[in-house]
Design brief:
alpha+beta; Ribosomal Protein L22, Chain A; 2 domains
């Protein structure tokens, strides 16, 4: 099975990345499609993400998933908290029995480094030494975007100003973690991450 990465965070929380190599029929024979997705590859990503939920927790009741007005998927009884992300041929998910979670996976692209001013404050540019024009900023800029996106998904209610309300305070590179403040709810959060050869992954559990 093409499980690309798996991490047992604790007894109640697991995450994983699935490399999508199967056909749509494979996933459809295992999981239901919860919403109409017209683009074939996006539909494959959608199905793979839901398949991964039950791979991480075999008892996960994916047939009970509902979609909030903010487009965040959830279980009405919160038996599990979960978050799904996908990019290219990869789907990522984090599932917890008792913690609110958010996850994001990205493939580094030049576009993200070009729009850093839209999601990073001037203070963050200075803190992470992103002012120098000759610095190769693409992988790191993508990681910072992914970190903020994981907080956005953790929150789940939309309406977030990434520059002002998701504040990255410090990077602990040796343990792959950012300290952050989500000022919309005045919540201090730890954002964990992993960097792979061609992917970045970030997640929040709180």
């Amino acid at each position: 099975m093409p499980i690309f990465f798996q991490h047992q965070i604790n007894d109640t929380t697991r995450l994983g990345i699935w490399k999508i190599e199967e056909t749509e029929d494979f996933f459809k024979s295992n999981v239901p499609q919860h919403r109409a997705v017209t683009h074939p590859h996006k539909r494959l990503q959608h199905l793979a993400g839901r398949f991964l939920l039950q791979y991480l927790f075999p008892a996960f009741p994916y047939e009970l998933i509902k979609i909030a007005d903010t487009r965040k998927p959830f279980l009405p009884d919160e038996q599990y908290h979960f978050s799904i992300s996908h990019c290219g041929d990869y789907a990522a998910a984090v599932v917890s029995k008792d913690k609110r979670v958010g996850i994001d996976i990205e493939i580094p692209t030049e576009k993200i480094s070009r729009i850093m001013y839209k999601f990073l404050s001037a203070k963050e540019h200075e803190l992470f030494e992103l002012i120098q024009p000759d610095k190769d900023r693409i992988p790191f800029a993508t990681l910072l975007w992914s970190a903020k996106e994981s907080v956005f998904k953790w929150y789940g209610n939309g309406g977030v100003d990434f520059r002002r309300e998701i504040q990255l305070k410090k990077q602990h590179a040796e343990i792959e973690k950012f300290d952050s403040l989500f000022s919309k709810t005045d919540t201090a959060l730890s954002i964990h991450y992993r960097e792979f050869e061609h992917l970045v992954l970030a997640w929040v559990i709180s």
